[in-house]
Structure formats: structure tokens, C-alpha cells
Amino acid sequence: MTAIDPETARKLFAQSCDFVLAAAEPAHFPKSRLPEIAFIGRSNVGKSSLINALTGRKIARASNTPGRTQQIVFFNLFDRLMLVDLPGYGHADAPREQKDRWNGLVQTYLRKREALKCVCLLMDGRHEAKANDLEMMKFLDRAAMPYRIVLTKIDQIRSSERETRIRHAQALAAQHPAAQSEVMTTSAENGTGIPELRTYLAGV
Ligand SMILES: Nc1nc2c(ncn2[C@@H]2O[C@H](COP(=O)(O)OP(=O)(O)OP(=O)(O)O)[C@@H](O)[C@H]2O)c(=O)[nH]1
Ligand SMILES: [Mg+2]
What we know:
Elements: H1 6-14, E1 17-23, E2 36-41, H2 47-55, E3 72-77, E4 81-85, H3 96-112, E5 116-124, H4 131-142, E6 147-152, H5 159-174, E7 184-185, H6 194-202
Parallel strand pairs: 2-4, 2-5, 5-6, 6-7
Antiparallel strand pairs: 1-3, 3-4
Helix pairs in contact: 1-6
Bound molecules: guanosine-5'-triphosphate (GTP) and magnesium ion (MG).
């Protein structure tokens, strides 16, 4: 982790960012040694939208249909960082068999991927953490994989409520050994928190 100033981070994320591949099984993961950052969270929480906001382009497919991202999608940011869009969990309508397959794929990735430096665990800023968010936190704790809570869709929360939401998330992070104490808030809609997240990620 190096200290990066916001302007350097902005410039990095303004560079080219290219789709590498979408992996449906571990054998397809790219043989890359770039430091990796993965985005995980419930279906529809805004993972793909956040990657688009960070890179300032529509590179990850975002949609209203939950469960859109069904593979692990790798994006190469200027040969400096790999941004990884993971399939969402908690998708109610998906068949059991498909959910098991996604979970297996994601867990293998999170446990085994050597290049993975940090996970951004996205939670919808409007709601309390759900049971499957807590399960994911425990999983990451057990895997000793550092992660940071990112509250999304902050544009949808009244400013009077934001502090409370952030405090709750900080308290939750404090109970989990692999969670970093800092919580970030973002909006892919109006860009709130995007420069701060870029600055953090550029230093990973
Ligand atoms: N208001 C608002 N809407 C957002 C924000 N981020 C995402 N959305 C909306 O939320 C919906 C889901 O966004 P996605 O980025 O596709 O979510 P995802 O987590 O990638 O979803 P899956 O791939 O299905 O797991 C879309 O309709 C987005 O436009 C945000 O910051 N603010
Ligand atoms: Mg997605």
C-alpha cells in the first residue's frame, strides 16, 4: 500500500481500461500478475455500475435485471491494476444449481487467487447488511482476505441519514478481523466518493 495523491489516481483511472475475459470456471482465470481488486456484493447492489463510474466508461454491463453478471469478468486498467467484477449473491430467482455453481466459482476465486490484493464489499447504503452480506464477511475473515465496505447508491439516501448509515457500517467492520476500518460511500449516479475510491485503489 503506497500513498497516492488524488490527481495521480484520477490520471490512472483516465487511462485505457480493457475487457480481458469473462471466466465461468477457474481454469479460465487470466494468467496475470497485476494486482487485483475485486468487487463483490448482493445482486443489483451496483458492482458493474461502480466499475463504470471508476473508469469513466461503460465497460462493465450494468442492468436492471438482477444476476446480470454471471461470470467473473476481468478488466485490465493500463497494465497497472486488474478490476474484477464478480457475480452477485442473493439473487432470489436463480435456480439452485446455478447459484451453487456461482458460489463455488466465487469462493474458489476469493480463496485461491494470489494476485488478489483487496476486495471491495459493496452494500446498498439504503439498507442494513443482509444475512448473506454477513456470511460473505465471515468467509473473507476466514480466508484472511482484506476487504473494505463500500456503501453504494448514496445519492438515494437523505443527507441526514448518511452519518447513521456510515456509523453502522463502521461498527460492523469493527467486528470483523479482515474488514478495514474505513468505510467508503459512493454514487455511480452522481460521482460522490468516486475520487476517494480511486485514490484508495490506486495505492493498493
Ligand atoms: N441511484 C443509483 N442507482 C445505481 C447506483 N449504482 C447502480 N445503480 C442502479 O442499480 C441497478 C443495478 O446496478 P448494477 O451495476 O447492474 O448492479 P450489479 O451489482 O452489477 O448487479 P449484478 O451484476 O446483477 O449482480 C442499475 O439499475 C443501476 O443503474 C447508484 O450509485 N445510484
Ligand atoms: Mg453486474
